[in-house]
Specification:
By secondary structure, this protein is α/β, with parallel strands linked by helices. It is built from 7 helices and 11 strands. It folds into 2 domains: about 150 residues, Alpha/beta knot (3-Layer(aba) Sandwich); about 60 residues, Trp Operon Repressor, Chain A. A 5-stranded parallel sheet has the order 2-1-6-5-7. α3 crosses α5. Specifically methylates guanosine-37 in various tRNAs.
């Protein structure tokens, strides 16, 4: 089943952009997923193709109109999740990315200006998604991030299906450090355990490093991490 992505945007020429390159681009060419970028202005009703208006109650900037955006959303109405790229949305997680990758696709709405009329968010069941605690000029860059994260998990996109199993955020851990040739660089050797050939010790080292880095850099993740001890999950010591 092909993963179908539809992006509603004021700048359709921004797509596929980076999604047309590397893993995502090859998967797009191979038909593993499809991408449609629709211009929201095509659903405007006046000759100026107006999609925004002044905010009710006053204030700076402009707000995307509910009636115009709703027409664009209804044009692609189906059972796919409807995601609104929004800094006030729920943070995107690897768990949500995996859920999306397992589904039929998604409709991604890219906001601009000061935001989107709340009424269309509620009436069309838009799921507000944030990629971080910062503000972008518009939702297009965020849509690129969401789709890149999802597409790489589609069957056959990554050369090795196990490549994603130990990545950051899987099992609430950051990823362990990586090394490759040369065995020594600028006086820094590769940790001896990685050259030992003992896969059990290598696995234990990688897990210990992942736990150390997560506890140091992301204590919020580490608090949810449950390591396997004796075949069962146990909470980490703090």
């Amino acid at each position: 089943m092909t993963f179908r992505a539809t992006v509603l945007t004021l700048y359709p020429d921004m797509f596929p952009g980076p999604l047309g390159m590397a893993l995502a681009g090859r998967a797009l060419q191979n038909g593993t997923w499809s991408l449609q970028a629709l211009n929201i202005r095509d659903f405007a009703e006046d000759r100026h193709r107006t999609v925004d208006d002044t905010p009710a109650g006053g204030g700076a900037g402009m707000v995307m109109r509910a009636d115009i955006l709703a027409k664009a959303i209804d044009h692609v109405s189906d059972d796919r999740p409807r995601l609104l790229m929004s800094p006030r949305g729920k943070p995107l997680t690897q768990h949500r990315v995996r859920e999306l990758a397992a589904g039929p696709g998604a409709v991604l709405v890219c906001g601009r200006f000061e935001g989107v009329d709340q009424r269309v968010i509620e009436s069309r069941g838009l799921e507000e998604v944030s990629i971080g605690d910062y503000i972008l000029s518009g939702g297009e860059a965020a849509a690129h991030v969401v789709l890149d994260a999802v597409v790489r998990l589609l069957p056959g996109v990554m050369g090795n299906a196990l490549s994603g199993d130990e990545e950051s955020f899987e099992n609430n851990l950051l990823e362990h450090p990586h090394y490759t040739r040369p065995p020594e660089w600028e006086g820094q050797p590769i940790p001896a355990v990685l050259l030992s050939g003992d896969h059990g010790k290598i696995c234990a080292w990688r897990r210990a490093e992942a736990e150390r880095l997560t506890a140091l850099r992301r204590p919020d993740l580490f608090s949810r991490y449950q390591p396997f001890v004796g075949g069962k999950k146990a909470k980490p010591e703090t």
